[in-house]
Amino acid sequence: MPIRIPRGWELPESAATPEHLVLGRRKALGLGGLIAAGAALPWQGAAAQEAAPMAAMRNPAYRPERALTPEKDATGYNNYYEFGSSKNVTAAAARLPQRPWTLKLEGMVDKPQELGLDDLLKRVSLEERVLRHRCVEAWAMTVPWTGFPMAELLKLAGPQSGAKFVEFHTVADRAVMPGLRQSWYPWPYVEGCTLAEAANELCFMAAGLYGKPVPAQNGGPIRVLFPWKYGFKSGKAITTIRFTDKRPVSFWEQLQPTEYGFWANVNPEVPHPRWSQAHERLLGSNERVPTKLFNGYGEFVAGLYAGLEKERLYL
Ligand code: MTE
């Protein structure tokens, strides 16, 4: 990934937001842990999005074991190449319409369909998960997402027995995404995983962040999350989920296969060809902490890779 290593002074020094403040804010919104799928309000501009609730009961199974990243850091330091290679894409991404939004389930499934996002959000059971996110560039954040397990979409789609892989296609809108003019990138941004990875309980579809709709710069209105993999696997603004018998070659893998692979599981002992993966820098505090195998989620996902030791699982 052609990345620019940020200097220390580019990030504000601030302490992590204490959890009670985040919860207190949600109480103030009158949500107090209740599902508020009314969150899925029509897109009415950034101000309306700021006020819209998108909260759900927190699932305690995914203990963050770290302080939450301050919201302003998690939503103000982003990778979203469709809007350029700067980390500050908030203003540019605000031009991406968030509604109406449909999600297509297609390919090798019994029930191909197109789902309106608001209808979908009413059909699934929403939960909040505080998850660690580890970018391949060696920065990390810990943030509360609202959404539902990808397994729920598998149930809706009914993958056929031949389907072995899942592709996540993300929006490519030339009218609002200046990065698409950079023709050396293999647009659109497509990511993929095995069907077993998609069915794993950790694979999550997020429509909310910090109790509000996911801001456009973080992948709104809906993105996928693979918290045990490097962040580039977690595609933003998903439009189509395609089930296939062929292993997808994803965006970064097409661009630089020697540096970015299909599996991309986090492993501190396997360096990126150009830098170490042993530590990560926490957004907000700038603290440097050791990286963990599978980003600390081995208890949920290690079993997925039994017998695959010959694969480049950590690139
Ligand atoms: N999805 C799209 N469509 N385009 C991107 O450039 N960047 C990826 C991933 N998903 C990216 C994307 C990378 S490299 C990372 S680290 C995460 O999004 C960053 O997510 P964040 O900005 O919410 O922290």
Automatic annotation (TrEMBL):
<dbReference type="InterPro" id="IPR036374">
    <property type="entry name" value="OxRdtase_Mopterin-bd_sf"/>
</dbReference>
<dbReference type="InterPro" id="IPR000572">
    <property type="entry name" value="OxRdtase_Mopterin-bd_dom"/>
</dbReference>
<dbReference type="Pfam" id="PF00174">
    <property type="entry name" value="Oxidored_molyb"/>
</dbReference>
<feature type="domain" description="Oxidoreductase molybdopterin-binding">
    <location>
        <begin position="99"/>
        <end position="252"/>
    </location>
</feature>
<protein>
    <submittedName>
        <fullName>Protein-methionine-sulfoxide reductase catalytic subunit MsrP</fullName>
    </submittedName>
</protein>
